[in-house]
Amino acid sequence: MVLISWSKQIKRGEGLSVHGVSPALFEQFKKWLLDLLACTDPSLPTKESSLPYAELSRTYSKMRSEANHLFHTVEASGMFNELLLSTNVKFENLSLDDAVNFASNVVLPSYDSTGENPAGKHVFDDVESSRQRLLTTTGYLKCVQANLHVTVSSLMAAAVVWFSDLPSRLNPIILPLMASLKREQEEILQQKTAEALAELIGDCIARKPGPNEKLIKNLCSLTGMDHSETPQAGIITSIEVMEEQDLLSSRAMTGNQKSRGRSVAGAEDRSRVEGFISRRGAELALKHLCKKFGALLFDKIPKLWDCLSEVLKPIDPEGDFTVEERKIVMAIESVKDPQLLINNMQVVRSIAPLLDEALKPKLLTLLPCIFRRVRHLHVAVRLAASRCITTMAKSMKVSVMASVVENALPMLGDAASVPARHGAGMLIGLLVQGMGVELVPYAPLLVVPLLRCMSDSDASVRQSVTRSFAAIVPLLPLARGLPPPGGIREDLLRDKEDAKFLEQLLDNSSIDDYKLHTELKVTLRRYQQEGINWLAFLKRFKLHGILCDDMGLGKTLQASAIVASDVAEHQLANNGSQLSASIIVCPSTLVGHWAYEIEKFIDPSVISSLQYLGSSEERISLRSQFTKHNVIITSYDVVRKDVDFLGQCQWNYCILDEGHIIKNCRSKITSAVKQLKAQNRLILSGTPIQNNILDLWSLFDFLMPGFLGTERQFQSTYGKPLLAARDPKCSAKDAEAGALAMEALHKQVMPFLLRRTKDEVLSDLPEKIIQDRYCDLSPVQLKLYEQFSSSHAKKEISSIVSLDDSKDTKDANVAPRASSHIFQALQYLLKLCSHPLLVAGDKAADSLRLILSDLFPGCPDVTSELRNLHHSPKMIALQEILEECGIGVDTSNSDMINVGQHRVLIFAQHKALLDIIERDLFRAQMRNVTYLRLDGSVVTEKRFEIVKAFNSDPTIDVLLLTTHVGGLGLNLTSADTLIFMEHDWNPMRDLQAMDRAHRLGQKKVVNVHRLIMRGTLEEKVMSLQKFKLSVANSVINSENASLKTMNTDQLLDLFTPADNSRKGSLSRNRDGSSNENKKASGSGKGLKAILSNLDDLWDQSQYTEEYNLDQFLSKLNG
Where is the domain boundary, 718, 735, 761? Predict the structure, then answer.
């Protein structure tokens, strides 16, 4: 390195006298370097000497020692006597080649020839082990020695280049320099040889014959050696392969050579490492050539331009195609080998950032040909062209982006060419990734053409365009107020409509009021008009979104209105012709509700709805009526069963009510729903994120497939950072990464979600008051609770959740089984909190009678005794609340005359508890209570009739419901009091149930009473629910977050009654944690693996089922 610096100074004008060196000594020194370069054998780097590089002396010693050991091992074995006799090697100066030959000649026979002799096997193993050690050492030594020789000889060659006069023979100089460009791993050393090669090429310009043409051709070939940068036409044969290799990710467009070098160097594939090094070396040499010759580069080295235009040809980008240029285009189109085109574009891509400004206009003459490759039939050529244009845009932004607007955007609208549309979408996506904020001024020009392709008939085009659209959306807010970019023709700049669209996309409040084309039978509130404006905006631009207004704000009305207006508008514009029918998919309980709402608000001459339900035979018979109706209302379950038929229909609107049902992307219902084909897709959900942020991916995969990337990409980009940030022990870096991921996701989806809360838009809605009424365990419940705590079942649960961290609990068989045990225990305790009969059953077991014998001495029928209300404090509390509401009281009592008219909804998780309320309270104690009941036993077709009957008849005091059946979508505003006998792990489900009454149309204050057993599992779970938090304010909120964030001791604590259950709530430390939990430290892997399956076990369908707890109860006395 010092020698190179010294010789460079001498060549650049500082005479030898300055350094005190005589010309004779200088020439002698130069000759000595040439003599060293003549030594091409890496093992003999110096002339007339057999010594290797001093740096390798220890490795040589190790090799010779191992060779000597092998010799003596073979000699002792007696296997290779003839070989030993012919071997005449001096191990003290053994060469590398001799060592390899000696090890290779020791060819061992198969072990079978040694028979069963243990001694023979031992000798065999010793010889083979020694042989393999020697071969390993020689292989390592050969590789290191070769690399070291390349480094030394290339630096010596560089020093010779910087001497004033080149020798007559250039091969001893050129070969080491080129070897360094291909193989030198250290970039700083490669820089030195690349600079020397550029100097050599400059010195050889006038040399005849000269090496320059061959050198330039080799450099251009080396730019295409990195297969991660240069697509291989033989490998990337389809869009699927390109997606599988993740060639469109941001990692593929970083352009950071150092980071890419490190990532590639860690790969197992040696060819990738060599490809990267070769490309880097070639680009360094081209960089120094551009720096050396500047604007004269193509004049001094015309071969470089020949390589740039080997297949691509220059065309004037400003004017129309001449006849000659058309011939050029035709000639390029006829090139049969796509790899030739790819390699040529890679050379352009490598040199584009390096060229002098004066030469860039000439390089731009190749741009028209490159743009035509964006629409090439071969996907690898399209990818190479898109990457090339992106790289050129970074250094020639104004000119290249003007060409993008002029050439690529029209390709998006080329209905005759799928490759053109796909290539243009891919190009814009790579531009966004590659240019970042530099693309902001151009974002408004690109977004509208992309939108028009997002409903393309070809899946690959949709995916390409949607990905690009998703990438460009976050840039749009930055473009507001910016002047249009320069260099673009006036007629290509966005028109007023596009400008207006962008403002509306970024700000919902700026959307103009949409005038419905049909009259509604209701006056819209302002926020409902704004919601319809937003829906109309989505429809106009073929966008899709989620209307996630708070529950009870009229999502059904808004969706019905936009569908009706679309139907009426089409009829007016097309002389009464019918638009394709729309399909509304909702929970089965709401099918009748939708039909009722449409009939209530929409003119029947505009919308004619059909309820597509019933048995298989009934549904088949209904299909013949589809043509007579323009709205088909069906359930998710029917879609799952009839997807083969419904998936073939072309729908206008596909509306998913309670669309969070498709949050699980692997469920059969989700798979079926995503097969429905519709021009407009809309999701209605008051709680779009039910489980966690990952639910959002499945919803958008229905709306705009590809908008949030693949599931794997979404997990990597958002899921992993957010999950890491949720860990209380996460680092500051992880917390920051989680916050950034959340912000990025918010910006991404913001334009496609509209959410208003009741607090924001309904100032006239009466308040909702939630009151927790605590009850103490009855003696029976306390006895059973304590009996469970000392049972065999409790011990089994304890052993399951206390699995050691080192134990592999991810086993597919272990976790579900363990989760099932925990689930049964939770179910037992929760049922016990509600009523002892829920765990005793209609016929109490002998074991149960034995346990309760102390409480009921001489009682012949324990079951009958348990039906007395005082054994269930919740039943007493329920009776008290009903009487406070004036329900079931003696009207002759003067004290109750002034009690206002209240109507009550009673929610329970299990039908059995409703049975007990109906039998033991209403029929036995409060006979004058009038009530209806709605649970899973009521057939779907009859459920809405019960709702209408309750709403229309004020003499009905009470409606009994299960949370599963009555908690979604129903309008029960005629009730003003809600009583929750039991509670759901997921607070969203109980909140949805509350909003059956607390919604638009409610005139009274809504009182919610939650009955909670003090000091039990129920109280502990309720304290973890955080009911007063809205899911909209807690985006990352797991359905069972309270369980999944517990440590082992906390979970076990759920199964234990508090000692002071009759005195009050659990004693707490100052920090709010219970005394027992102070000793808890972290959750084990076993616990996490078990609880990860609890979501699946606690399925909504299980709310209406009775659990057979006989087997579980048998363990209570084990």
Answer: 761
